[in-house]
Specification:
Length: 702
C-alpha cells in the first residue's frame, strides 16, 4: 500500500490468474546511486479452493485482480471490476439487479433475487451476485473462478464464483487517506487505519463515502433524476489466540441511497432523459450488513477453519415507466410505477479441514449449513395491486476436494458435494380481492468435478477438468397471482475445460489459455405480459463454447503490457414458448453473451529527477482499452446491443508518502447500453452507462 520509492505498484491482469505488482529490486552502483534490476513476476497465492495455494497450480480458469490493479484502475465497485474481466458479461438496469454470466453461462432472465448462476463469496461468506454494486473498499484481491464451482461453493455457482478477500489487520501501524473529484460531481473519500491493539490483538478500520449526479436527466426540470450516495465501512479484529490458533472478526455495512434503476426510451437523447415527477427515487436504498467470525487452528498436518456469519440486506426500490413509455404501451401519459421492498437475513456456518499451505497433496473437506429468510413485497401505484411474499431456504451440505499426485508430473483432482435444500413460500396477492398461496420445494443433489493436470516442465502446466453444476428450483419474486407462482425446474450444467498455464520462473512474462464447452439444462427465463402484468417461470436449455487467451509481459524496467481476448459462442438449444415479446426459439443466441471481447493495458513507471520539495518523485501511468462486441439484448434476439470500446487512463505522481493523480474514464464518451428490452413491437428501452468522466485525486500513506 505504500507508494514509496521502493514500493512502486505496476500491475497486470493474467489469463486465468493475475500477476501481483511487478517487483522493484534496488541494486547499489559503485557511485552510490541506485539502479533497478529487471522486473521478475511473482506467483500469486489464492484461496479459490478454500485453502492457500499458488494460482498457477489451480486446475481451472482463474482471474485474480489485486489491490494495486483495483487502485490503478480507480474501480469504485465490484460491477466495474467484473465488467473488465475476461469471459464475464453483466446485464443490469441499476445497482440492485445485476445478472452475471461467465463464459456465456447464466440465467437467461433472473426470476428472483436468489436466481443467480455466480455466487459472490466475501471473506468466506456467501452473498447474492446481485450485490456486486458493493464498493471495492480496502480489498486485497478479487478472484474470479470460471466454470461450475458447486463442489466448494454450492448452489448458484453453475457458471462460476467471485471470491473477494478484504485486507486484514496488521501487527504494525499503517493506513491511508484518499480523496478524488470528477465530472458530474463524482467524489470519493476513503481511508483505512490498521495496527496492533495489544500483545495478541490487532485491528483495521476502513471507511468510504462517495456520490455523484445520475447521468440520466429528468426532462421535466432538467436536473439529474437522482443523486446517488454510498457509505461503506468495515471493521476487523485479529486475535492471535495461540501459536497455532487465530480468530478474525469482521463487521461490515454498505448502504447505497437515491440510486435508480431506469429504462430510457429508444432512441436515447444526449443526455438521455425520462419524464417523471422529480424526486421519485429519493427514497431508494440498498443496505448490506455482514458480521462474521473465522477461527483457524493448525494441527501437525492440517488446518481447521470455522466460519460463522450473519448477513442482512434491506432494499427499497421504486421502478417504472415514464409518461412517454406508458402512453405508447397503455394509451395514457401516466407514470407507471412499482414499489419493491425486500429484507433478508441469512445465518450460515462452514466448518472444514484442509491441508496446510505448501503441502504436496492439496485437500479440503467440510460441512455447511445455512438458513435464509426474506420477503419481497410489491405495490403497483397505478392499479393498486399488491403482492406480499415470504421465502425461507434451509440448506445443508457435505463436500470435499483433493489434488493427488499420481506421478512426479501428473496430478488428479476430484471433488464431490451433496446438498439438501428445503424451500418454503407463502404469499398474499391483491387484485380487487385477496388471494393466499403456500408452497414448498425439496431437493437434494450432487455436484462435483474431476480432472488431470500435467507439468510438461516446471514452468508449464496443462490441465483438463470435467465439472457438474446445479441451480436448484426456486419461486419467482415477480408472481402477481397464485397461478404464476409455480417453481422453476432445477438448472443443471456439465462443463469441460482444457487449458494451460505458463509462468516461467524468474522471467518477465506469463501466458494462460483455455478452451471450454458447457451444456445447460433448464436454465431460467421470466415470462411477463405487459397488458395483464401476469408473469411465469419458464425453463430453456443452452450451450456455450469458446476460448480465452491472456498474457502479461514486462517490456522493460519502466513498461509492462497485459492483454486478453475471449471468444464465446452461446446459444439457446430448446424452444421456450410464452415469454413476453414472443416465443424463444432454439438457435437464438444467449442474451448479453458477446462473441468477442478483449483488453489491452499498458502500465509505465519511472523515477523522476530530484526536484526541490518533492522527495523521491516517481511517475506512474496506466492506459487501458476494453472491447465488448455486439450481443443480443433478449432471448428472442429482437435486436442487438451495439459493441463498445472503452478507453481509460490514470497518471500518478508519487512523492514521499503522497500521491497526486488525474484520471479519465470512458474517454471516447461511449454511451453504451447495460441492458435492453423490447416492450412491444417497435417499443425499445435500454439502461445506459455513464459517458466520459475526468477527475483528480490525492492520497497519503502512513
Amino acid at each position: 500500500m505504500f507508494p514509496l520509492r521502493r514500493h512502486p505498484t505496476v500491475v497486470a491482469l493474467l489469463v486465468g490468474l493475475a500477476l501481483p505488482p511487478l517487483s522493484s529490486h534496488a541494486d547499489t552502483r559503485k557511485d552510490g546511486a541506485e539502479s533497478f534490476a529487471p522486473h521478475e513476476l511473482e506467483s500469486v497465492t489464492v484461496t479459490a479452493r478454500r485453502g492457500e495455494e499458488q494460482a498457477k497450480e489451480v486446475p481451472f480458469g482463474l482471474s485474480v485482480i489485486d489491490a494495486g490493479t483495483l487502485e490503478s484502475k480507480g474501480n469504485a465497485d465490484l460491477e466495474a471490476v467484473l465488467r473488465d474481466t475476461a469471459g464475464v458479461n453483466i446485464s443490469s438496469s441499476g445497482p440492485y439487479d445485476a445478472n452475471v454470466l461467465i463464459r456465456g453461462v447464466g440465467s437467461l432472465n433472473q426470476i428472483s433475487q436468489e436466481d443467480g448462476s455466480v455466487v459472490l463469496n466475501v471473506d468466506g461468506v456467501a452473498l447474492s451476485a446481485r450485490q456486486i454494486s458493493l464498493a471495492t473498499l480496502d480489498m486485497e484481491r478479487v478472484e474470479v473462478l470460471k466454470g461450475p464451482q458447486g463442489t466448494l461453493f454450492g448452489r448458484n455457482s453453475e457458471a462460476g464464483a467471485i471470491n473477494v478477500i478484504s485486507r486484514g489487520p496488521t501487527d504494525y501501524r499503517e493506513g491511508y487517506l484518499r480523496g478524488e473529484y470528477g465530472q458530474d460531481n463524482q467524489y470519493r473519500l476513503e481511508g483505512a487505519l490498521s495496527g496492533p491493539l495489544g500483545e495478541r490483538l490487532s485491528g483495521r478500520l476502513a471507511v468510504r463515502q462517495s456520490g455523484e449526479d445520475h447521468w440520466v436527466e429528468n426532462v421535466n426540470d432538467g436536473d439529474p433524476i437522482s443523486k446517488p450516495r454510498s457509505l461503506a465501512f468495515r471493521g476487523s479484529l485479529l486475535w492471535d489466540v495461540g501459536e497455532r490458533t487465530s480468530a478474525l472478526f469482521i463487521a461490515e455495512r454498505q448502504r447505497i441511497q437515491h440510486d435508480a434503476s431506469v429504462q430510457v426510451l429508444y432512441p436515447f437523447g444526449d443526455p438521455p432523459g425520462i419524464d417523471m415527477t422529480p424526486g421519485r427515487f429519493d427514497d431508494n436504498q440498498n443496505t448490506v450488513e455482514r458480521y462474521s467470525s473465522e477461527v483457524q487452528h493448525d494441527f501437525a498436518g492440517s488446518r481447521l477453519t470455522s466460519t460463522t456469519a450473519l448477513t442482512r440486506t434491506d432494499m427499497s426500490l421504486v421502478t417504472g415507466y415514464g409518461r412517454r413509455i406508458s402512453e405508447i404501451l397503455y394509451g395514457a401519459p401516466m407514470e407507471f410505477m412499482k414499489e419493491d421492498d425486500s429484507d433478508q437475513r441469512v445465518l450460515s456456518q462452514d466448518l472444514n479441514v484442509s491441508s496446510l499451505p505448501g503441502a504436496r497433496v492439496f485437500w479440503v473437506a467440510g460441512l455447511y449449513a445455512s438458513d435464509s429468510r426474506r420477503n419481497f413485497d410489491s405495490f403497483f401505484e397505478t392499479t393498486g395491486n399488491r403482492q406480499d411474499r415470504d421465502y425461507e431456504t434451509r440448506a445443508y451440505a457435505l463436500y470435499g476436494e483433493a489434488t493427488y499426485p499420481l506421478t512426479g508430473r501428473l496430478d488428479w483432482t476430484f471433488g464431490l458435494r451433496h446438498t439438501w435444500d428445503r424451500k418454503t413460500y407463502e404469499a398474499d396477492y391483491f387484485s380487487g380481492a385477496w388471494q393466499h398461496d403456500e408452497r414448498d420445494l425439496d431437493d437434494d443433489y450432487t455436484t462435483g468435478r474431476t480432472g488431470l493436470s500435467f507439468a510438461v516442465m516446471p514452468d508449464l502446466n496443462l490441465y483438463a477438468m470435467l465439472a457438474r453444476g446445479y441451480k436448484s428450483g426456486l419461486f419467482s419474486d415477480y408472481a402477481t397471482q397464485v397461478e404464476d407462482s409455480s417453481p422453476t425446474d432445477a438448472a443443471k450444467v456439465n462443463s469441460l475445460e482444457i487449458g494451460f498455464k505458463l509462468e516461467p520462473t524468474h522471467q518477465r512474462y506469463a501466458v494462460n489459455g483455455a478452451v471450454f464447452i458447457s451444456r445447460i439444462k433448464d436454465d431460467h427465463l421470466l415470462g411477463y405480459d405487459v397488458a395483464t402484468q401476469a408473469t411465469s417461470a419458464i425453463n430453456a436449455d443452452t450451450r456455450s463454447q469458446g476460448a480465452e487467451l491472456e498474457g502479461s509481459l514486462s517490456l522493460s524496467q519502466d513498461l509492462a503490457l497485459s492483454a486478453s481476448v475471449t471468444y464465446i459462442d452461446a446459444e439457446i438449444t430448446s424452444d421456450a414458448p410464452g415469454v413476453q415479446g414472443g416465443d424463444v426459439e432454439s438457435g437464438n443466441r444467449v442474451p448479453q453473451a458477446a462473441r468477442w471481447s478483449g483488453d489491452l493495458v499498458l502500465t509505465y513507471q519511472r523515477e523522476l529527477p530530484d526536484f526541490p520539495g518533492l522527495p523521491y518523485p516517481m511517475l506512474k501511468a496506466r492506459a487501458g482499452y476494453h472491447h465488448v462486441g455486439a450481443r443480443p439484448a433478449d432471448p428472442q434476439n429482437h435486436f442487438d446491443l451495439d459493441h463498445y470500446d472503452l478507453v481509460d487512463t490514470r497518471v500518478t505522481l508519487l512523492t514521499g508518502n503522497a500521491e497526486f493523480y488525474v484520471y479519465g474514464d470512458n474517454l471516447l464518451n461511449e454511451r453504451y447500453e447495460l441492458s435492453g428490452y423490447q416492450l412491444a413491437p417497435g417499443v425499445r428501452t435500454g439502461a445506459m452507462h455513464r459517458g466520459r468522466t475526468i477527475g483528480v485525486g490525492a492520497g497519503y500513506y502512513f
